[in-house]
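Entry 14. Two folds queued back to back today. First construct below, sequence then structure tokens.
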Amino acid sequence: DDDDDDDMFGSDEEDEEAAELRKKRLAEYAAKKSKKPTIIAKSSIMLDVKPWDDTTDMKEMERLVRTIEKDGLLWGTAKLLPVGYGIQKLQITCVVEDAKIGMDDLEESITAFE
């Protein structure tokens, strides 16, 4: 019978060849993956900076906020919006790299300006 000659589990030689091929493909995949640029997660944040009272100079506050410089922080547009009774708040946007800057860091830096 020809059926008796068939090796149903494969030979050792084929397993070694498959293992070598698998190693080669894994090495190629790792090399290809290492060449890809990593994705940097960023967030766009809109901050509302409200004054302590009506005597706070909000233009000066914007200047002070923009002096905060950190790695992964980019300031965007800003505008003054009326809150009521002649008081205005500063609304400013920024883009941060999530791994480098946290919202708490920004809040602490801004509230340090009294």
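Second construct, same run, same settings:
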Amino acid sequence: NVKCRALCTTTLSSAEATQIVKRIKNSYSVHLLVDNLPVATKFFIKNKGVQYEHGYRLGFVKKDGSVYINNHLTLVFKYHTVDEKKFRVVGFEVEPSSVDSKYMKVYKAGDACHLKSDNTDAKTHEK
């Protein structure tokens, strides 16, 4: 069991970055599976309640035209206990966000991880 881990870091070429920006502008989604269950993004919509969308958006475009990639994922697994050593995954949600890489440092505090930078919360980009 790992509470928090950086899965990868990469530097994109200009062509790769251009392709990703194009895909974000075209509302591309990412799909993940766990035990053959698709991931879902949970939304709260005013006057409609909870809504789910299959997968998660690769990124988003702000009103000023700035494009951001969702480079940080919080994965939420819902499961039933079969017995003391067996569990069955019954739900899989993702909370995607864009975190500026220069603020991304992982510090462990007990059993949890927090993205922090110089004693302040990491700068995240909101839609």
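Quick look at the second one. The first strand starts at residue 29 and ends at 30. Helices lie at 14-25.
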